[in-house]
Design a protein that fits this description.
Layout: E1 7-16, E2 19-28, H1 35-46, E3 65-68, E4 71-74, H2 80-83, E5 88-92, E6 99-101, E7 104-105, H3 108-116, H4 139-147, H5 155-159, H6 161-165, H7 172-182, H8 190-197, H9 211-215, H10 222-238
Parallel strand pairs: 1-5
Antiparallel strand pairs: 1-2, 3-4, 3-5, 6-7
């Protein structure tokens, strides 16, 4: 029997944060099939009440994040062949986030932590001022460039064991964003930002297990960014700046 004649045994979580269960579905196997294709097939042909999120389908928006066989992934980029356990696939909502329904999570806490980490640019100039040129070869700009491509998909947040054990922890994405702003020479909110990320829920809670780096679909390294925040907050504390 060829791959295209086989059926996949798919288990999908159905329910919300108060409870639920896995429901089994038989899904036809196809060439170059992604996990998002599988979920789409179930909703389209087998269970129209299934709830999930997706948008671009080409790895740009990050909205289709789910747990696939226990690991956080963008389902549009995850091919079935790369994750099969025998002929079985288990699909769940992202870990560490409240579940609204089925595979759709509530992202409120995730984005609230982005704000708590002071992940908002604080300008030091007005629109009347000339644009400040920044050389792409400057040391700080290179640091920013290495971390700036985060699109807040929450895959790293779902991969983080610290978030699981300490729900107040700001998480890899929020801290990674703070690190890019710490290295932005135009930003004027450094003291407040360092105070925010040095607190009880901040960067010093990171255990450097690098789950965030392992699963980041954009190949970022939030653990490295958090290590930078640890150095900066300690230095600022020793100088009496925070």
């Amino acid at each position: 029997m060829s791959k295209c004649e086989e059926n996949l045994e798919v288990k999908i979580w159905r329910g919300d944060s108060s409870g639920g269960e896995f429901i089994r579905y038989n899904v036809p196997r196809e060439e170059s099939q992604t996990i998002l294709d599988v979920v789409y097939y179930v909703q389209r042909h087998l269970d129209p009440q299934l709830s999930y999120r997706y948008a671009c389908r080409v790895g740009m928006c990050g909205s289709c994040g789910m747990m696939v066989n226990g690991k956080p992934r963008w389902t549009c980029r995850t091919h079935v062949d790369s994750v099969l356990n025998g002929n079985n696939v288990t699909i769940e909502p992202l870990r560490n986030l409240p579940v609204i329904k089925d595979l759709a999570c509530d992202m409120t806490d995730f984005f609230d932590k982005w704000r708590k980490a002071k992940g908002i640019f604080e300008p030091t100039k007005t629109r009347e001022d000339d644009i400040e040129p920044i050389s792409p070869e400057s040391a700080k700009r290179k640091i920013v460039a290495a971390a700036i491509e985060c699109i807040n998909c929450a895959v790293c947040y779902a991969a983080c064991d610290v978030v699981e054990k300490s729900p107040a922890y700001l998480g890899p994405a929020a801290l990674n964003r703070a690190w890019t702003l710490v290295n932005d020479v135009r930003d004027g909110g450094q003291k407040e930002r360092l105070q925010a990320v040095a607190g009880d829920a901040g960067c010093h809670n990171c255990h450097s297990q690098q789950g965030c780096m392992t699963y980041c679909p954009n190949d970022l390294n939030p653990t490295l960014s958090i290590a930078g925040l640890k150095r900066e907050t300690v230095a600022a504390a020793l100088k009496g700046e925070i």
